[in-house]
Every structure is written in C-alpha cells, then in structure tokens.
Amino acid sequence: GDGCGHTLLTPHSGTLSSKNYPGTYPNHTACRWWLQAPPGTSLLLAFGDVDLEPSEHCAHSSLVLEDPQAGTAYGPYCRNTVPATPLLVTNSSAVTVLFNSTSHRSGRGLLLSYSTSQHPEGIGTGMSPDPPPLAVCFSIYCPAGCKNITGDIWGNPSQGYRDTSVLCKAAVHAGVIADELGGQVTLSREKGITLYESAFANGLHSKRWAGGWGPQLQDPPPPTPLDFGGSQNCGNTLAMAAFNASSWWHEVDALGQDRAWVAERAALGTAGHSWAAEPGSAGAWLELDLGTRKNVTGIITKGSSEQYDYYVTSYRVSSSRDGKNWKPYRGSGGQEDRVFEGNTDSHSEVSNAFIPPIVARYIR
C-alpha cells in the first residue's frame, strides 16, 4: 500500500510526510522518497516529527535513511529510537528515505524537510512555532512545501503574526516566499497587540485571535507579534491611470433605473457596486493601466455585495509593457499559467503575492 503523504520535492529543498499525518498512519504501507541535491552540494535533513509505534528494532514501523554514495544508513527510527538531533547533516547529494509500517495502533507518522548545504542555517520544517528564545531578529530557511503543514497562523501581514504561528506557513501567507520554492526568511519581534484579525492570502486562511485575561490579574503585555522582513503586503497601493474591460454590465433594475457596472468601478474601496462583465460573456477580463512601468508585488480582490452577492472565485493574470503583447504569469519556474485562488464571499478581501514580481505598465 501507499504510505506517502504530503510531498513537495525540489532540487534545493522540500517537505515530505507519511500518509494521514498528523493522524495515525495506515497499517501495512510503505513509501520511498529519492532526494537528489545539485552536484557539489550535500543534503541537510530536518526531523519535524518522528512518531512511529515503538517495537523491538523498530520492527512494526520504521524510518531508514540510506546514503548510497557513502554506503551508510541512518536508523531504523521509531518512537523508542528517535534521531539523536533534529538536524542530520550528510556528506552526500543523494539520500533515500524509506518508511514502512506493519500492524500498529498508534503514531502520527513522520514529517521531514530537507535543504542543501547552501542553506546551512536554521532550516525549519514549519512544524515548530517557537522562534529562538530572546532573539529580537532572527533568520531561518523555509523549505518548499510548508503551505500544507498542519498548524495554525494567527494574524496577517499588516498587523504581524502571533509568535505561536507556524513560521514557514505564515511566511507563505505573508507572500514573503512561494510555497513551491521556499526561501530564506528574516523575522523581527515588535511591540505586541491584543487583537489579530484573520486574513485570506496566498491560499491560506489565518485565524482571528483576541487576547484576554481575568480582572483579578494584572494584564501582562500582549503576545509579541512577528514581522517578516520584506513582506509583500501591498503597503504601497499603486495608482491607476485608467481601467478597461472586455465588456461591462448595463443593468436595468426592477424600478427601471439604469446602473452601469463599468470598468472604472473596479478600484478596491469604491463605494457601491463594482465592475461586472456582461452576463453570459466568455473569457471576460479587466485591464489596469498603471500609467508607467511599475513593479507589482501582489493583488487584492474583493467582491461586490451591493444588492448582489457577486465575487470571482479564481483568475489568471497577464501583463504587458506596451498594451499589445501580453505575457501570462506563471510564477517561479512554472510551465503553466498560474491560477490564483480568489474569493469565497462578496465582502472579504483576498491577497495573492507575485513571486517574482511583475514589471509592467498593463495588468489583465
């Protein structure tokens, strides 16, 4: 049977887990992952969690790492024989990860991340929420694949993140790194706040958290929020020179009154109704003219709750420097047009980051 769970492997970093993690892994399963780093580099493996049912010589469930170049093996590991350190530094550019299970009753399974010797400092599996103690500013390397690691995020890019947030997952939410690539993340501790509003960004929904303590106790300082260096949170909103669209809806309501859902109404924060394409039109698009060539790091979308519950659930983005030749956005090394996750209601804002940014005058 297939014992493989969440898996995202790239040449420079990745994340893998057993099936059902962090729930109990299945009986009688096996999984084999081959990890291959670029020539001239070696692999670093971070054990986020190894919770396999204990047995003599780990006979019921086991994790074994094999280094074919050196002819050595690490393990077998299970709950009563865990890795000696959370980080395994190998001298090899290739490692095989073997996971096996027979009949068992308990165990979360395994969560493992890796990076190369080009990133020796502080690789995070995204599992631990704890920043280094007393550090005001610190840096970790987040491997690819952190987005689907279990754990909650508290906060948003503009307010900062509560220090119990899963750091690498929060970095994807903030738009600092792309989940499919990972990357270096720098964080700083700032003055605390008592309320974190939730936000939906880059396919992740953070949670709302409100602090509160009993009146018989003196209020302690609020939890320290964490701010990401270089967070692309649309702090500098780009001015629009003009809007254009494939079509617009000329509505005549029940009272016979005209209402034009024209492209100019697409600006975020416009009072009343927004832009809407002509009903039934295929391949509708909205075009933004920034006036001059700009560096565009992200987009925020919102629906129109004016009388109707309207919103866009997904969309593609293309850009142009001259308004004639258009280039679809594919993200970091993607071979297919990127489809962005849009809104699920008409009133919430949804953010998506462009990693790398788009340099263009026109956006569609």
Automatic annotation (TrEMBL):
Keyword set includes Phosphoprotein: yes
GO MF annotations in UniProt: signaling receptor activity
Domain CUB, residue spans: 4-117
Keyword Signal among record annotations: no
Family annotation (CDD domains): CUB, FA58C
Pfam families recorded: CUB, F5_F8_type_C, LCCL
A GO-annotated cellular component: plasma membrane
Domain F5/8 type C, residue spans: 223-364
Cysteine-cysteine disulfides: C4-C31
Protein name, UniProt field: DCBD1 protein
Organism of origin: Halcyon senegalensis
